[in-house]
Amino acid sequence: MSGRAQLMWDEAVTGYDFGPDHPMDPVRLALTRRLVDAFGLDRDVDVVAAKPAGESTLRLVHRQDYVEAVKAASTDPGAADGSYGIGTLDDPAFAGMHEVSALIAGQSVGAAEGVWRGDALHAVNFAGGLHHAMPGSASGFCIYNDAALAIARLLELGAERVAYIDVDVHHGDGVQAAFWDDPRVLTVSLHEHPRTLFPQTGWPEETGGPNAEGSAVNVALPAGTGDAGWVRAFHAVVPELIAEFRPQVLVTQHGADTHFEDPLAHLAVSLDAQRAVQVACHDLAHEYAGGRWVGLGGGGYAVVEVVPRSWTHLVAIAAGRPIEPETVIPEGWRQEVFARTRQLAPARMTDGRWPVAFSGWESGYDPADRLDQAVLAARKAVYPLRGLLP
Length: 390
Hints:
Strand order of the largest sheet: 2-1-3-8-7-4-5-6
Order of helices and strands: EHEHHHEHEHEEHEHEHHH
Largest sheet: 8 strands, parallel
Number of helices: 11
Shape: globular
Strand content: 5-15%
Low-confidence stretches: none
Helix content: 25-40%
């Protein structure tokens, strides 16, 4: 197995563009790629452009009629069939939509294949993590569910246990739905509580289908949760489950929209806490999955201030050359940001909150604390189903 990491990248993924007024601005992908390059990380990874996901691959998760609807809308956006979730405010149809969505999916599938084959120990597709797409519909800015497709491909290749950890601020509903009744896949999602945020799913009581009880885990965090609570919740739930499940591959989704500057949600997490959880996922892969790790992007709508820094940290961790939080950002990148967006770029790879301090669950909990209530609800719902003490 190669010790080098793969960075999945094809410049054409920046064509995933819902239009000038949509919050999911593809400049976030372009700026991330430029920042990765500015830090010289290309020397530490193999940059790979995988082929687009073909129809047989897409059908591992998506229905044929839905794929046909996406293709039709891709050719004639004005005739998009809204019954498939295409042509809506969240998911406007655009020319070439099928092709670029299949390309992004192909990068995640390629990452999974590379890690499974041993071409690389880690692989990152920060253009991926489009976790809301359902088998038969688009949802939440997501056309094809590349995360679910990557997992489905791993199963097709012979994997018997795949764990998926989703720390996007929104519930990873599409991935959970794809494997709801499949005990080979453990899905764990930490997200803002469905009472206060789209997609209004991800309640702790959602624990998997009749053939896979305990295979879906949902930690629904109260709005306003900050660094200490967010990292505490992760460590209070995730490592014990991964240790019990012992996946052969770990797939993680790192939506950057948990950040306190993100305009579409209500958590108060810093870049430094995001980095801490990225490191924790890397370490879990090495401890329990033979190091096999596929890291994906996801949401994130502070497209200059947050997303490029967060995902550059992800790439650097995967590459084995983590960037110290206090590191000054190269001036050339900051100039490019201003030239492209007329926004001032951040100066360092930190929000000034490193190291992130938190209280471990083993030190006790407060049953009156809302964060601890969320953790307890998840543990009580799932742990007994997996033979663990809640």
